[in-house]
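Sequence only, no structure available. Ideas?
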Amino acid sequence: MSDPAARPAFDQADFGQVQDAGPTAPAPVRSRATLLKRLADVVCLPGSRVNAFERSMTADLLIELLREAAVEERVRIARRIANVSDIPTSLARLLMRDELEVARALLENSATVGDGDLIDCVRNATVEHRRLIAARRGLNEVVADELVRHDEPAVTEALLRNDLARLSHEAIEAIVAGTRDNPRHIGLLLRRSELRPSHAYVMFWWSDADARRIILQRFAVSREVLQEAVSDVFAMAADENWQDPLTRKALQFIERRQRNRAALARSPFESLDEAVMVASESFTREVAEEISYLSGLKPMTGAKIFTDPGGEPLAILCKATGLPRKNVRLLWRALRRPETDAAGNLVPALERVLTLFDTIAVDRAQTVLRYWNWSLSSALTPSLIRAIREGDEQALDEFSQPQRAAMLALSGDFRRP
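Reply:
I predicted one. C-alpha cells follow.
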C-alpha cells in the first residue's frame, strides 16, 4: 500500500469524487468555507509575506468564489479584509457594492479604502450605501462633492451631521441651493464651519425665524477692520473721480454712510423719513423704489426686502439707515400687515421684528444690507437672469460669487410658471 503522505493533496480522482458527491454533500461546503478563509488569509498577509501580484491573483480567485457565496460568508470576508492596508481594488469594489450587510464593514470602518473606490461605490451603489459613505470619518472634499451631486436628502443630512467630513465651497453652495426644498438642512448647515456669509445671506431669504436669528447673530459682523484698513483709499478714489467701478463698488460696501446723498438731491422727498411716512399712507412701486434709492439700495434689493414674508429685513433696513424705531411700524403698516391682535397686543411677527431692530447694531445691520444689495442687484446681468430662468446649474461656474448668490436667492422669483 502506498504511503498516504506521499499522495498529492488534490488529484484528478479526488476531483471526480467531489463532482459525484453532489452540491448538498457536507464535504464541499466545508471545503468552500475553508478555501474562502484561506484565500482571505493570503490577501491579508503583510507586504513582507506576499507581493502585489500574488495578492492580486489571490483576490481574483476569491472574487470568483464570493460571487456564489452565501451572504454570511461574504460578511465574514468583508470584515476580515476591512483593515487590510492594501486591499485589491477589484475585491474592494465588489464587496462595497454588495448588499448593505456585506458592504457595511468596508464603508463604515475601513480606513484603507481609497477615494477612487468610494467614488465608484457612490456612482454605482444604492442611496443607503451613499448614506454610509457620507458618515465616514475624515471624508474628504472629492468624495463629498460626488455625494452632493446625487442630491439625495438622506445622504446630504448624513454628510452635514458628519463633523469630520470636509466640504468644498461648491458642495456647500449646492446644499444651500437645495435648502429651498429641504429646509431641515438649514439648521445643520448653520453648524458647519465651512458656511460663509455668501451662503448664509442667500439662505436667509427662505429660512424660518430661528434660523434667521442665528444667521444674523453669526454673520452680521462689523466692518470696522475693513474701514481702518482702507481709510486712505477713499481719498485716492475721490482724487481719481471714482473712475474704477470695481473700487467704487467695494468701497461702497465698506463705507460708514448708508443713505445716498446724491439720490436725495434728485428725490421728490426731502428725506428718507418723509418717503417712509408717505409709504405708510400710499405704498406704490414708485415710493418703494424711491425708498430704495434713498437707502443706498437698488430697486431689486428693495423689492426683495418689502416682499419678504418674515419682515426681519424691514428692521435691518431701518437700523442700517438710521431710521427711528417707529419707522419699522410705518413700513409694516405700508405693507398692510396686521399690527395687533384682537386683545390689542402686538402680533408675534411684528414683535420679533421690533426686537431685532432693538438688538442689532447699526454697523452690523449695514453689513447685512450691503451684502444683500451687492449680491442681489449688482450681479444681475442679462445672462444671469437667463440662467436663473432656465435653471442652468451648469452655468454657475461662469459667474462670480455675487452673481451666484443672486442666482440662488432670486431663482424662485424668476422661475417660469
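The CA atoms of residues 134 and 159 lie 5 Å apart.
Hope that gets you unstuck.
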